[in-house]
Amino acid sequence: MSSVRENEVVLKPINPTTIAPPAAKYAHAVLVEQPTRWLHTSGVVPTAPDGSCPDGVGPQAEVVWANITAMLDDAAMVPSDIVSVTTYVVVGEPLGPVMAARDAVLGDHLAASVLVTVPALAQPQWRMEVAVVAAT
């Protein structure tokens, strides 16, 4: 039996055996117990600190996740505090590099996740963006 320290947030992946398993590396839902701090990001876009935007969805995904990691750092959080991920990718872009960048940051941590294809984003050079919710 695991014990929970007082005021320790617990993120519990929920994957009922009565429904089909997740289609990739994520949880169908995440139960958050005892949270005290929440972080909700805007759509995190693939703009590097120098203002540039790389070509290609793979390099853009790496920039997006670096930006998310910086936001988590500023909030005194880590990737395993992420509860949910919403990813937007322009129709026709390969999804593998987008998921690989997410998996590289999250490692074995399972967050609730949705990936939506869209016809376009706010800037034509942006091929993807991500919003996350984290809790501690």
What's the topology here?
Layout lengths: L9 E5 L14 E5 L4 E3 L16 H18 L7 E9 L5 H11 L5 E7 L9 E8 L1
Parallel strand pairs: 4-5
Antiparallel strand pairs: 1-2, 3-6, 4-6
Care to describe what's here?
By secondary structure, the protein is of the alpha+beta class. It has one domain: 2-Layer Sandwich (60s Ribosomal Protein L30, Chain: A), CATH 3.30.1330.40. 21% of the residues lie in helices and 27% in strands. The protein contains two helices and six strands, in the order βββαβαββ. The chain has helices at residues 57-74, 96-106; strands at 10-14, 29-33, 38-40, 82-90, 112-118, 128-135. The strands form two sheets. Strands 3-6-4-5 form a four-stranded mixed sheet, covered by helices on one side. Helix 2 (96-106) links the parallel strand 4 (82-90) and strand 5. Residues 1-5 have low confidence and may be disordered.
